[in-house]
Design a protein that fits this description.
Blueprint (H helix, E strand, L loop, with lengths): L9 E6 L3 H12 L5 E3 L18 E2 L9 E2 H14 L3 E3 L3 E5 L5 E5 L4 E9 L3 E3 L5 H9 L3 E2 L2 H4 L9 E5 L3 H10 L5 E5 L9 H9 L3 E4 L2 E7 L6 E6 L5 E5 L2 E4 L3 E3 L31 E3 L11 H20 L2 H7 L8
Parallel strand pairs: 1-2, 1-8, 2-5, 8-19, 10-17, 11-12, 11-17, 12-13
Antiparallel strand pairs: 3-4, 6-7, 7-8, 9-18, 14-15, 15-16
Helix pairs in contact: 1-2, 1-7, 5-6
The structure holds NADP nicotinamide-adenine-dinucleotide phosphate (NAP).
NADP nicotinamide-adenine-dinucleotide phosphate (NAP) binds next to α5.
Length: 338
Amino acid sequence: MTDNTPRELEHVVIIGSGPAGWTAAVYAARAQLEPLVFEGAGSRTMIPGGQLMFTTEVENYPGFKEGITGPELMMEMRAQAQRFGTRIVTEDIAEVDFQQYPFVLKSSRGKEVRAEAVILATGANAKWIGLPNEERLAQSGGGVSACAVCDGALPAFRNKVLAVVGGGDSAMEDAIYLTKFAKEVVIIHRRDEFRASRIMAERALADEKIRVEWNKVVTEVLGDDVITGLRLQDTVTGAASELSVDGLFVAIGHQPNTAFLGDQVALKPNGYVEMSVPWRTNTSVPGVFACGDVMDDYYKQAISAAGTGCMAALDAERWLAHGGAEAHVSGKEEVAVR
Ligand code: NAP
C-alpha cells in the first residue's frame, strides 16, 4: 500500500484534485516524481474532485461515447494517478511560503511540507445565489446547475422552460447555448441593462426563444425532487412574483480558489493566477506552476484543465531536470524556459 505520509522533502506537491490536478499527478507519477496531492478536505461548496463532482452527466469529455458522470470520471482519474504511485492527503493547503526554498506548504490540519516544485490546481468555484434549495437541487441533480455547457443537453431540459440568472457574457452565452434544447429561455437579471459585451447582449436579445425578466432577483427556488419554479422579486418596486421553470442555470461568475496564496504568486486583477510565459504553465515564482481553472478564466472546461495539468507536470519535470532546484538554492538565475 502507498504510504501517503509527506516526506522530509517532496519533489512535487500538487494542490487540487480536479481534472488538472489528477492529470498532473498521472504525468508526474509516471515520471517517477512520486507526487503528493493535497486533494482538499471538502467544504459546503467544494469537495475533492472539484466542480465535476457537482455535475451529473459529462458528455463532452473525449473517450466516453455514452458519457460518464462527473463523480465517476473524477474517481477514475484519481485511481489512475494512484496506480502510478501518486500519494494523496485529504486536506487543504491553507498557507504557502514561496519566499523560502524548498517551498513550504502548511495544511489545514497543521502538516508542514517542503517541496522542490509545486503545481497549483485548485480550480475555481462557480458563484451561487446562496439559496438553500438552490444548493440542494444542484447537488441532487434536480435541475439546478452552474454549467450550461455541462448539463444543458441533458434530456431533462429538452423542450422545457429554462431560466438563466446573470447579465454578463456567461449568462448570454449560456442562454444562447440553451436555446438549442429549450422551448424558452428566460434571462433573469437584477438591473435594467446587461453587463455583457454588446455583441453578446444583442445576439441574446435578438433570439426568438430568449426573453428577459429585467430588474429581478431570485428569492426562492421552488420544488422538492426537481425544480418547478422560482420566486422573484422586482429590484425597483419590490413586487414579488412566481415563474414556472424546469431548469435553473446560475451564471453569475466564478471565483478562483487563490485566497490561500496570499501575495506569494502574481494574480490577475480578477484573482486568477497570472502565467509568466505564454503557452507554458510557469507562474511568477520559478518552480511553481499552475494549471486548470485556477489560471484559466476563458475556456473553463474539464478537458482543457486536464490538458494544462499535463503541461504543468511536464514543465515541473523539465524544470527540475534542468537544474531549477539547484539554481534556486545557489541563488543563481533561473534556468531558461525551453
Ligand atoms: P461577470 O461579467 O462578472 O457577470 C456576472 C453577472 O452576474 C453580472 O451581470 C452581475 O450583475 C450578475 N450577478 C453577480 N452576482 C449576482 C447575484 N448574487 N445575483 C444576481 N446576479 C448577480 O461574469 P461572467 O459573465 O462569468 O464573465 C466573466 C468574464 O469572462 C468576463 O470578463 C466576460 O467577458 C468573460 N466571458 C467572455 C465570454 C465570451 O466572450 N464568449 C463568455 C463568458 C465569459 P451586475 O451586472 O448587476 O453586476
